Design the sequence.
């Protein structure tokens, strides 16, 4: 298929359909309402389901019910809405159902603002909902990657039988870029006869399936959580994705940055390279599992004297970066948390000030 | 190829992401440079980002008056319609450009302003980018046309091809857009006002292929890692 | 109570951000006049919704709290339970109150919380750009109902007054409008009554105002008034649905 020009929000909607997801439930919220508006038009064309729920709380459980039947299902929202879905995400993780959640982040806490933010890093990677679960989180840097990650999210959700999140900042949803949809994507869902409540007739069996998260027996709950843990450990082995940028050079400072923020960093790095100043960057594409080894090794490079985590938050990912660098180098934060995005010039100034000290 | 002749009130409409704002802003620059008094109003109540208001500083710099919501509402998640807009429609500049939001949804606001349009000649210009979903074909463009006319309660009077894939635009894309807009014009009887092409692409284009004016574009609404005006 | 052309004390000097022809402004004024007349401005806490009226606190000159989308009745409950001497009112749109906040409103009314709700029913999500509301009319177009509301899939519009009056707990439930001058005085009377019931610590009080959203309906302010009168009023009849005396 030839390239088309799409807004991130539309592209995410289209990607879901291309990945065989014909089930979409959502509640409007800026800056992601275009996904719902796009799918309100597109789902009927493909005989799909489109439901505007009465709240994100309800939407979370519509997703749970649909996912429990083994159908591919997605919702999209933005920060305050994802807070409301967090309870359902915990239940979905507990009941081991595959589902795709998209958070097009805006500023918080509370009502915050509607400009881009990465303030939900902790919510996405460290919990959000209650209990012992993790969320596989992918963070696209642009519209094309948003498409690829959204499509892949359905496979990963099934592979690990759990919720997967695409974490994009508001800019990802709103900006337009040329995109191409992969032709050869295999949209067949994995067999789910052994757990989904797809009807005993459908499965041609007398064995019923239960979708649930209640385990009153401590040993049973312990085993269940260890099973979840095994999945998360496997993610750490198999799903870590990141991009190294100018990391072959003898960089003086290592940047860790993700999402659209990393695009600004790339421009800054290119500009500094022209001036003869080498700066490297690790861009996590998966936030959980975090590219721990990559960040560790990149920070350890001889030429590197400092690591800076550049984020659209008051400093959240920096804690993971610090954890991985393990004291080899000083780790600091730089960024904005009100909706403005640092410019390449501001990043260059900051990097130079770090080098001076 | 001729000169762009637009005068009076020009409302830029089109489907989501067809490049209305980029067209509006560049048209304003172009006409201002030709010595015409230009004013611009941002009517986009639909998009939260990448609206004309983002280009307000450079518009002001070039001496183009912009009607915007109050600064404190600039980033509000609210469909704020500046009250001065109605006044601007009643007393237009030599050229008044109104940049509406996308699709029929974005032009719904025009119907709310209908009283101010009464008895005035309005140029309603549909911008088409055939590389956008829903407007790849003449049929698609006609459907959007119908929806926009229904929601705005105004008739489309002119067409603009803004064929582009941003940085990946090739001359072929511009030619393809030109052919589509000509066909659309042929089928609907609506004239083509102009087509757009990025300034950098102009030397590569065979301009003799076009019967319409070409508006040179410099991108003003860019993400923060790019420089505007390139 | 004749018309007061001067600005009520309970309104600030700020110009509202509401679109031309939007009825939010009129309702603000009525509520402010009632607050003035009852002399309760310095003893009142408003609770702003998430919706076009999110910045109501810029226009009302009394204490205010800003709720999460739909949760204002729960916040009002909190306020009234810890400070029964304060007057509290929520000011909510149809998305806020009848969709995401349906649970909170029903339970606050059923507990008989002693606060007042002003419910702005404009049959659309105004703030977020015209998505379908629970009160959107059958066939009415919205961005999430591009072909018009399909009642087969989304049900019929919810009538909040009727629904809340079915609760056995005593309360004051009234539906009014401000579409024409002749309705405005009645609307104000109902709002005043609602606040008075609260002052007397009698019951929960709820006044729905059938409103307009010319911008998202895609109509001139005049057409919007007419459409609301022709289409909304037959489905959302005006009147008192319940009083605590019953
Ligand atoms: C949890 C959450 N979900 C969604 C939103 C987005 N949102 C803000 S206002 C609104 C609906 C507003 O409609 P309504 O309550 O009818 O008020 P109106 O603007 O029409 O007066 C929505 C969906 C939000 N702020 N928070
Ligand atoms: S969008 Fe609608 S409800 Fe909101 S201020 Fe404008 S007219 Fe009023
Ligand atoms: Mg409403």
Sequence:
């Amino acid at each position: 298929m030839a390239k088309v020009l799409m807004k991130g929000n539309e592209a995410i909607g289209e990607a879901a359909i291309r990945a065989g997801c014909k089930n979409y439930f959502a509640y409007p919220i800026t800056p992601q309402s275009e996904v719902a508006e796009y799918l309100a038009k597109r789902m009927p064309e493909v005989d799909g389901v489109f439901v505007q729920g009465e709240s994100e709380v309800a939407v979370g459980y519509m997703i749970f019910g649909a996912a429990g039947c083994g159908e591919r299902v997605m919702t999209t929202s933005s920060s305050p809405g994802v807070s409301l879905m967090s309870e359902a995400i915990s239940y979905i993780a507990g009941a081991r159902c595959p589902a795709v959640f998209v958070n097009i982040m805006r500023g918080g806490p509370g009502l915050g603002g509607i400009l881009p933010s990465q303030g939900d890093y902790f919510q996405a990677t460290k919990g959000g909902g209650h209990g012992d679960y993790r969320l596989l989180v992918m963070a696209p840097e642009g519209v094309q990657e948003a498409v690829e990650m959204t499509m892949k999210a359905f496979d990963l959700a099934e592979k690990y039988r759990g919720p997967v999140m695409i974490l994009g900042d508001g800019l990802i949803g709103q900006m337009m870029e040329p995109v191409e949809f992969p032709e050869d994507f295999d949209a067949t869902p994995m067999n789910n006869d052994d757990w989904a409540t797809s009807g005993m007739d459908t499965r041609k069996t007398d064995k019923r399936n239960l979708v649930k998260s209640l385990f009153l027996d401590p040993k049973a709950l312990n085993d269940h959580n260890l099973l979840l843990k095994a999945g998360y450990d496997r993610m750490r082995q198999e799903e870590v994705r990141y991009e190294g940028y100018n990391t072959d050079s003898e960089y003086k400072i290592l940047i860790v940055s993700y999402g659209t923020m990393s695009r600004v960093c790339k421009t800054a790095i290119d500009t500094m390279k022209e001036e003869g100043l080498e700066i490297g960057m690790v861009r996590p594409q998966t936030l959980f599992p975090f590219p721990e080894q990559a960040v560790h090794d990149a920070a350890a490079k001889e030429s590197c004297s400092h690591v800076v985590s550049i984020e659209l938050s008051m400093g959240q990912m920096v804690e993971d970066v610090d954890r991985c660098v393990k004291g080899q180098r000083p780790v600091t934060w730089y960024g904005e948390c009100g909706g403005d995005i640092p410019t390449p010039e501001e990043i260059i100034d900051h990097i130079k000030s770090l080098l001076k000290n | 190829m001729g000169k762009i002749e637009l005068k009076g009130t020009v409302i830029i409409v089109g489907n989501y992401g067809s490049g209305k704002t980029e067209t509006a802003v560049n048209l304003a620059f172009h006409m201002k440079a030709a010595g015409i008094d230009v004013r611009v109003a941002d009517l986009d109540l639909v998009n939260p980002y990448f609206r004309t208001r983002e280009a307000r500083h450079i518009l002001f710099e070039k001496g183009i008056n912009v009607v915007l919501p109050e600064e404190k509402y600039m980033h509000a998640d609210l469909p704020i319609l500046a009250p001065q807009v109605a006044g601007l429609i009643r007393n237009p500049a030599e050229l008044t450009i109104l940049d509406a939001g996308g699709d029929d949804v974005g032009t719904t606001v025009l119907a709310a302003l209908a009283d101010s349009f009464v008895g005035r000649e309005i140029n309603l210009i549909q911008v088409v980018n055939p590389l956008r979903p829903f407007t790849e074909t003449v049929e698609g463009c006609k459907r959007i046309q119908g929806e926009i006319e229904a929601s705005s309660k105004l008739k489309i009077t002119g067409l603009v091809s803004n064929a582009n894939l941003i940085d990946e635009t090739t001359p072929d894309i511009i030619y393809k857009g030109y052919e589509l807009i000509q066909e659309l014009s042929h089928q609907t009887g609506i004239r083509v006002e102009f087509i757009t092409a990025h300034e950098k692409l102009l030397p590569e284009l065979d301009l003799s292929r076009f019967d319409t004016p070409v508006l040179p574009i410099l991108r003003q609404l860019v993400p923060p890692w790019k420089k505007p005006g390139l | 109570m004749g018309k007061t052309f001067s600005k009520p004390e309970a309104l600030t000097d700020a110009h509202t951000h509401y679109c031309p022809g939007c009825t939010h402004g009129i309702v603000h004024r009525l509520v402010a006049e009632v607050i003035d007349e009852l002399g309760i401005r310095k003893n009142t806490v408003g609770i702003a919704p998430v919706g076009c009226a999110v910045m109501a606190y810029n226009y009302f000159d009394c204490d205010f709290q800003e709720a999460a989308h739909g949760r204002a009745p729960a916040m009002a409950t909190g306020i009234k339970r810890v400070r029964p001497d304060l007057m509290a009112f929520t000011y909510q749109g149809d998305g806020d109150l009848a969709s995401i906040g349906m649970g909170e409103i029903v339970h606050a009314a059923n507990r008989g919380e002693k606060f007042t709700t002003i419910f702005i029913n404009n049959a659309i999500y105004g703030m977020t750009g015209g998505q379908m509301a629970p009160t959107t009319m059958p066939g009415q177009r919205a961005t999430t109902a591009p072909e018009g509301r399909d009642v087969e899939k989304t049900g019929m519009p919810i009538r909040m007054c009727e629904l809340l009056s079915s609760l056995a707990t005593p309360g004051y439930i009234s539906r009014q409008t401000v579409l024409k001058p002749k309705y405005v005085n009645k609307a104000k009377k109902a709002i005043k009554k609602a606040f008075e019931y609260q002052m007397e610590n009698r019951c929960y009080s709820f006044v729905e105002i059938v409103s307009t959203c010319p911008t998202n309906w895609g109509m001139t302010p005049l057409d919007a008034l007419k459409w609301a009168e022709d289409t909304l009023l037959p489905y959302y009849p005006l009147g008192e649905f319940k009083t605590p005396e019953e």
The domain at 8-217 of chain B is CATH 3.40.50.300 (Rossmann fold).
